[in-house]
Amino acid sequence: MNRIAVLGSTGSIGTSSLDVIHSHSDCMQVVGLTAHSNWKQLVDQCNQFRPQFAVLSDSSIQNEISRSDFPSSTELFFGPDGIEKVASHPEIDTVVCGIVGVAGLKGTWAAIEAGKTVAVANKETLVVAGPLVMDLAQEKSATIIPVDSEHSAIFQAIRSGKRKEVRRVILTASGGPFRNYSVDQLENVTPEMALEHPTWNMGPKITVDSATMMNKALEIIEARWLFDLEADQIEVMIHPQSIIHSMVEFVDGSVVAQMSPPDMKLPIQYALTYPDRLEGVSPRMDWTQSMSLDLTPPDRELFPSLDLGFEVAKRGGSCGAVLNAANEVAVDSFLSQDMKFSDIPRACRAVLQAHDFDPNPSLDNLLRLDDWARKEIKKWISR
User: Fold this and answer.
1) Using alpha carbons only, how large is the chain's radius of gyration in Å?
2) Which domain, by its residues, includes 132?
């Protein structure tokens, strides 16, 4: 029985994870669930899955909640420390890290430090602290399995050869809703337009990141550390159908792709059952129908975020923490209509260039620079 904690259980990754666990209740058990402030949904989840632990990281809502709404067998914690306590608890085998943004870093770090199997959907963990995270995983014998569809695809395809035989990896991207826009048209994009993703159903932050292609920039950085690649071993291709989730090219010229209909439950299930495969709950390919699979290089002028991703992947150090923090604040500012859509990558570049670069930062310095970047981009917005 795989005893699982789901960090961010009320988000899109969390709810999909619980669908997978429910479908495989003969070999998977929910032991811990965490949410930020959506306590009503957390109550429903606890009453369905009866976890040993539940956490609400927003301790300010503690007085709004009736403890009797939760099962008597569930121990309830408040505050971010509760997430780390659950992530590292000896009763838990696997931790699904589905908390969006740098807020998910501490829970992921605690799970790795405890030597867990860690299913990482929180790409910011590796963007911000990739070398530190991978070194810690090796030291603690923790297993990191990516849940992002692109990195899961690489994780699966890369097993067709030896690591030294990998020439490059090719991340695919839907291109978001603006892949056929002009640079001038991007100047007039509204939050409502950016939140209409043509393929995936995601939260607002990730959906906007997909529209700017900053999500792909962050995935470039994540792939750099997760698979121990050089920046020039990573390519990006636009693939509107979102069927090919990514590819690995080997030194002999062979290219191995992982394909499936776009549904996050498949990479989640693979992470929870690895190295085995079980009957899945995701949609299957329909091989009775004709299909077209288009692949085109991205327009780097239209999506300057990609250049930021490659630059940060090449430079490393403190750059990932600064870019990620700046982007989080920029997306929030765009959604509240305090910033133009096209200004998101411009502002991120300005903050990145202004920061005090540290080639070998400690975790404390990364968190300090995260705070600095958030304040700095707010100054940029006010100007």
Assistant:
1) 20
2) 2-146
